[in-house]
């Protein structure tokens, strides 16, 4: 399930994902990112994962390809999670982003949001 957080505004997209991520979830996320990228030079992303156990492989691959194509249009990106595989995923896709991805544990989500919104921790 994809939840749009209230911090979403201007060139910032803040989302929380829970449970299973489906292809429609990824499609909605990509459409939101694409719309922001059309309007702004850089799009900053806060991506929080809570109780996420599974991602549909096809959706994850499609999302990865989107990131590669649009990597230079991303600004500050923070991924917040609670599992080691989430940190590895952040490190894996970090090189395709203009400023990379900073990974934070769920306990540090306030620091992550501050980084995305203000550029500092």
TrEMBL record:
Gene3D superfamilies: SpoIIaa-like domains. Pfam families: SpoIIAA-like (PF11964). It comes from the Bacteria. This is STAS/SEC14 domain-containing protein.
């Amino acid at each position: 399930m994809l939840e749009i957080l209230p911090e979403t505004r201007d060139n910032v997209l803040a989302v929380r994902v829970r449970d299973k991520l489906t292809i429609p979830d990824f499609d909605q996320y990509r459409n939101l990112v694409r719309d922001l990228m059309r309007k702004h030079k850089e799009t900053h992303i806060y991506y929080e994962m809570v109780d996420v156990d599974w991602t549909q492989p096809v959706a994850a691959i499609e999302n990865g390809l989107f990131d590669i194509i649009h990597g230079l249009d991303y600004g500050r990106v923070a991924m917040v999670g609670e599992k080691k595989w989430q940190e590895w995923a952040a490190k894996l896709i970090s090189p395709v982003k203009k400023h990379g991805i900073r990974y934070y544990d769920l306990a540090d989500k306030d620091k992550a949001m501050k980084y995305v919104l203000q550029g500092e921790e």
